Amino acid sequence: MIVPNEIAPVDYNKNTNEFIFVLEDFILRVNYETKQFELETPDNLAYNEDFEFIKSPPVDFEIIDFGLVEWIRLALKWNISIPKKRSIAKPFSFQVEGITYTGEFNPRTNDLTLSIPGRTIICYYDTLTTEFPEIQFMDYGQLVTMISSIAVSERLKCYKVPCEETDFVSPTVFTPESITVEGNEYEFGMITSGLALLRIPNRNIYTNMLTITTDVPELTVLHQEMLIDVIRDVVYEKTTT
User: Fold this and answer.
1) Rounded to an integer, what distance in angstroms lies between the CA atom of residue 74 and that of residue 71?
2) What is the chain written as a DSSP string?
3) What are the beta bridge partners of residue 22?
4) What is the pLDDT of residues 13-32, one digit of tens each?
5) CA–CA separation, 24 vs 110, rounded Å?
6) Smallest Cα–Cα separation from 71: which of 122, 27, 111?
7) Which residue(s) pair with 40 in the sheet?
C-alpha cells in the first residue's frame, strides 16, 4: 500500500468512541482514550491490540502488507499530530446564495459551531417540505411533526364550522402559533386557502465534522445540497492554514 503523507479519520463512532481510518481495503478503528485499535484486513481478519503492540509488531503482522505498520503508527498519532497553535477554534464567515453564515472550527477536535440566520417562509402547506426539504430534518424531525399537528387541527375546523372562501385575498393576515423545539422559538400559522407561514429564528448548531451529516442532516439539503460542500471547503482551509 502507498501511505499518504497526511492521514485523517473518515468517520467517528460515538457509541464506541472510535475514530475510523480507511486505506485501500483496510479499516482501522482507534480509541485514543483506551489506547486500543482494531484492524480489519481485506481478508476479513481482525486484530484487536493496544498501542504498545505496534511499537514492535511480530513479523507475521508486518508482512501483511508493505506500509501497513507505518499507516497504523501515523493513525495512532493523529490526535496529537496537529500543532498546538491549531488547537484554538478559528472563526469563519461565508455566503451561500446571499445568506451569510458564521461560526468557529477547531482543527484539533473537529468541533464545529455554525450560526444559521433566521428567515420567514410563506408558501402553501402542501408544498412546504418539497420546496424547503430541510424542514423535515430540523430538530431531528420534531419541528415538522408539530407543524403537521397544527395543520391538521386547522383543516379539521372546516369540518365542524363552515370556513370562509379559500380564494386568495390580499392583504393576508396570519395568526401564527408559537412552537418551541430544542430551545428554538418558531412560529407557524395557516389560513383556509392552505397558505402557511413559518418563522424560523436564528439558530446555533454545535456538531463535529466527523458526525455532521448524522448530527445535523438538514445541512445536507440546504441550498440545493450546496451548503455542506461549502462547509467542508471552509473547514479544509482552516485545517491547512
Assistant:
1) 5
2) -PPPSS---SEEETTTTEEEEEETTEEEEEETTTTEEEEE-TT--EEEEEGGGGGS--HHHHTTSTTHHHHHHHHHTHHHHS-GGG-S-EEEEEEETTEEEEEEE-TTT-EEEEEE--EEEEEEGGGHHHHSGGGGTGGGGHHHHHHHHHHHHHHHHHHHSPPPP-S--SS----PEEEEETTEEEEEEE-TTSEEEEEE--EEEEEETTTHHHH-GGGGTHHHHTHHHHHHHHHHHHHH-
3) 27
4) 777 888 899 998 899 999 98
5) 24
6) 27
7) 27, 46
What pLDDT shows up at residue 44? 85
Name the residue among 175, 197, 184 with its Cα closest to residue 121: 197
Q: Tell me how crowded residue 153 is: count the other CB atoms within 10 A of its CB.
A: 11
List of the chain residues with pLDDT < 70: 80-87, 157-171, 240-241
Cell numbers representing residue 239 in the block: 485545517
pLDDT, position 160 = 54
Dump pLDDT digits (tens) for 154-190. 777 665 555 555 455 556 778 889 999 888 999 999 8
**Contacts for 219 with CB less than 8 Å, ≥ 6 apart:** 114, 134, 205, 212, 213, 227, 228, 231
Report the distance separating Cα 120 and Cα 71, nearest Å.
50
At 6, phi and psi to the nearest 5?
A: -125, 135
Enter the pTM of the model: 0.62
